[in-house]
Amino acid sequence: MKTLLKLTVLVLCLSFYGCKNEPSAATFDDYKYVDSENVLNCNDIDTKLYNEALLSFENDILKAFNSRNNDLRVAYTTFFRTLQGNRVQFQDVASPHSMKVFEALKGQHNLWNDDNSINYRADIFNCLSSNFKNQSLATTFNALVQTNSMRLDLIAAPLQKVIKNANSDRYLAAYIALDMYYANLFNVDPTKVTEKPETDEAIQTTPSKPTINQTPANDPHAGHDHD
Q1: What phi-psi label fits residue 198: left (phi over 0), alpha (psi between -120 and 50 degrees) or beta?
Q2: Most exposed: 108, 111, 185, 219, by fewest CB within 10 Å?
Q3: Could you read off the pLDDT of 21-50 as tens digits, one per residue?
Q4: E strand or H helix that includes residue 53
């Protein structure tokens, strides 16, 4: 009987937790932004890890998409535009800290479906969408989730109108971080992720205008004596 009980416990461990020592919100302790205010207030949900994920994501896109001006609005807009074109190089954008946070997020079992896709019905998304500042976007988001139709190409149009305000709508920002950034890190090799210097130039930026070397126009009077 004891042997059967031990076997049952072992099977449960393998089934639900994979017997891996993956970090979770309960075990993750490498908080880099611990002094920053937790802007996510969700009933019955510990949002400390989600807030850390948001701030690490924003630091990554600032370095990758607007490092020169340090403008988060521009970084969000450029990131989203690049994402729509399927041109975000997540291997290059991700930082070592974001990969650590991602490992902890993977331990949030209700956040993911069995195929590692985002579970939009997770409690955290209900909280986030309920607090979107743009009610039209919230309505569209919830309708897509309820009909199992959530896809980037369907949410992109309404999101495009408010993406530049993500830096001030922190619940929207957290949704973008989870669905459009961390959900895309499964194929990133953490052993090849390196820290980006603060002075790195943007990975994706609007091409600068070429420098035009102007030469003085020929002076029709040059070489003549007007005395």
Answers
A1: alpha
A2: 219
A3: 445 555 888 999 988 999 999 999 999 999
A4: helix 48-65
Alpha-carbon distance of 177 to 217, in angstroms, equals: 54
| The two three-digit tokens of residue 192, written as one number | 């090849």
Longest dimension (CA), the chain: 120
**CB of 163 closer than 8 Å to CB of 76:** yes
Count of other CB atoms within 10 angstroms of residue 8: 10
Instruction: Give the pLDDT confidence of 64-88 residue by residue, as tens digits.
Output: 999 788 899 999 999 999 999 999 9
Q: How far apart are CA 173 and CA 73, in angstroms?
A: 11
Token reading at 214: 């102007």
Distances (CA, A) of 123 to 47, 55, 129: 11, 20, 10
Taking a C-beta distance cutoff of 8 angstroms, is the pair 166, 176 a contact?
Answer: yes
Give just the sign of the alpha carbon dihedral 135, 140, 144, 149. Answer: negative
Phi then psi for residue 59, to 5 deg, are -65, -40
- Residue 225 CA to residue 195 CA, distance in Å, equals 66
Structure tokens at 150: 């959530």
What is the distance between the alpha carbons of residues 61 and 70, in angstroms, rounded to a whole number?
10
Q: Which of helix, strand or coil describes residue 156?
A: helix
pTM of the complete model beyond 0.85: no
